[in-house]
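Give me the 3D structure for SnoaL-like domain-containing protein.
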Amino acid sequence: MKYRIAPCLLAFAFLVAACGQNAGRTGSAPVAMTPVAAVSERPLSKAAKIKAVNRFFTAYAAGDMDGIRAVLTEDVQWTIPGHHPLSGTKRGVDEVVAFFTQLGKGGFQAEPMFLEANADYVVDIHRGWTTKGNGKVDTMWALVWHFNREGKIDRVFNLSGDQHQMDAYVWGNYTLKPIPGRLQ
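Predicted structure for SnoaL-like domain-containing protein (184 residues):
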């Protein structure tokens, strides 16, 4: 099956990369932008950033959580869109790894199709799909990856080509903790 990258998804991914992680959202506090002078001081090349994202995908495909940890900062922030139990911003490498462990239970797969970098970001477009569970997800995703000065990923923002499909799948396969455990 061939997939066409929705132009609006690609454009939005580049907008987020150019403007910060709160692009397109209202009521959010502004995100501090990296000063132009600091951008040129970054030691990691565009190719090295793309290689780090590819290392992430390789580790994810193998279920290698240590490999995922190796490319992320300890205080990474990873934002998952949606209205479901797995959505929201994961703060710290432990939360991110727990999220990907849960995705692994759904048999989530990813096939990178496009990677491009600038001084601060990598944008990837990939096909993501499920192989287990009730229902299915099979859609395009755009991720905006940000790197710190040491060349590790410190912020990721996901964008879904079909958020309703993802929301329905997650609600059908993952449950919230019962109250009061969920409120602690």
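Residues 40-175 form a domain with the Nuclear Transport Factor 2; Chain: A, fold (CATH 3.10.450.50). Let me know if you want a second pass.
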